[in-house]
Fold each of these.
Amino acid sequence: MFHRSHTPRPTVVLDHGAFADSTSWNDVARELRREGHPVVAAANPLRGLSGDAAYVREVLAGIEGPVVLVGHSYGGAVVSAAAVGADNVRALVYVAAFVPDKGESALDLAARFPGSSLGDALHPVPVTLPDGSPGVEFTIDQAKFPHQFAADVPEGVAQLMAVTQRPVTGAALEEPAPEPGWRTLPSWAVVATEDLNIPAAAQRHMAERAGARVREVRASHAVSVSHPQEVTSVVLAAAASVTR
């Protein structure tokens, strides 16, 4: 009797960006699990690009089998860097994300295209960086958060997201990216057309430059919360390419 071989579904690793936390992936993770995918929502330290990428790479090293690596916002820069040297990563997905080339920073890319109102919504706080040097970290003012980050999310949910947001250091946003994983890995991208953090024009430019398969969704920066089915469908397309 012949037995059909079973190829295990790839694990999906979800990496949040600045001003969010892992719970921003809850509905996407639920949909992916229904489709039989193991899911890990990594806690992005948001302290510095190289250190954040090193941490995600350690998470990847603890996973057996192929991985689809997904990054939102600043997390796009992190997954691009983390994928290099992580042999189990088979595909990248960028969700309303920075997709930097070598030498570019999130701050560089944010300033390159008009349309972001993020700067006026930020609240800076002095901090000591991991290396002991003085720095600054940013959150979005809680009163401004729903409109700035999550305009198409129910008000009560957006207010809770404002409370649970995690700060990002200025150093993380300023650190130049290393060689990106998208140069050697197939990529997909969700462009949020109503994004007030990373303008849609910037998202399109970066995604197309990376050769990503692009899907546009009329959504705020919090597209994984407001449109989880659409985001999930793109992740599933990337995962399907791994198992063919």
Amino acid sequence: MDWDAFFTLHKDLPREGPGCAEDVLWALERAGLSGEVTVCDAGCGPGADLEVLAEALPLARLTGIEKPPQFVKEARARCARFGDRVRVIEGDMAEPGGPYDLIWSAGAIYFLGVTEGLQAWRDALTPSGWVAFSEPVRIPGPQSEAAREFWAEYPALTDLEGVTARISQAGYEVVDHRLIIGEPWETYYAPLRQRILELRAQGPDDALVEVLDAHEREISLWEAAREQIAYALFLVRPA
């Protein structure tokens, strides 16, 4: 992967993975969080969910953590209107600081591993703290070739029971979960699809063409099996 080409494609996209504001609001409602709470968005990307968290929790103090400087810059710009109650730092989400009433992580815990990430975050939670994270899952039923190819580079893929076992291994319990399927993926892929078209029209070099082709193939596989490709959003807490 040519990372310069990757970030050329992903520059100024609204999100870096499937999801929507309703996912964030669901987690806050199920956890009963409001008021002067502390929240971490671990792997916040360009700040889409961090912005929703800040809007939904007007008295909260929030920290977004991201490694690529480009995403840090974009998230800071996106959340600048919230002033100093929202900060975005360039750092390692395995060491988020804290303590937090909620650690939110959309599609990023796989960089650490579910069990490993939850174990790393345990000491970053308040005594009543929560973690909400999304993770790829294999849903029940026959899998098409497109669905199998879509997840071919993610050998850790398992079903809901498999992720639940990893959560239990980390010493947490699942309070609730919901599937992220269909429209929340289109929310991610539609701007990406448009960005690919724009860059192809500009005569990209070979490295960028390779990245565009790979992303276009990913989108095509999803379009061929959109009802079989899912993340699950889990709301968990230490057992």
Amino acid sequence: MDWTVAPEPYDSPVAAALWRAYYTEVSDRWYQLHEGRDTEPGELEREIAAQSGAELVPPRGVLLVARYAGEAVGTAGVRVLDATTAELTRVFLHKRARGRGGAALLVRAAEDAARALGAARVVLDTRGDLVEARALYARLGYTETEAYKEDPYSEHWFTKGLTTPSTGGVNQGNSDRI
């Protein structure tokens, strides 16, 4: 089955459902690790609403949605930070879609989107407990760097120079496995 990755309005029903799934997973993971519980419903609703994704619109950003066999299963956002730098954010794949090469394809598509927005490099941040994400970024050529922003949940910061377009194409299958 082929993967596709395409831009999606940040406020579409598809994007909203993926944002909810993403935020629920990373929030529950954090609360389980630090407080031994899942995110409380009020906490979840407040935080989902506080981060609308409105910055992920052209000409300064984009939200990409990955589909596997036609089903929306993941996202990656790109937003321009300055004249040469874009930030990768909201990288997520549903558990049911993992291990099929979609994460690498999605990040590469986001890198291509960053290039199209004029970026020469990409930065991102993540948490220490998101070991799978850190391994993915390292495998894709990202290197750890100094903090580029303050965020209470950021523990690791990565950067990657964008020199040439990625290979493999956005709308093609991909044999990369994660």
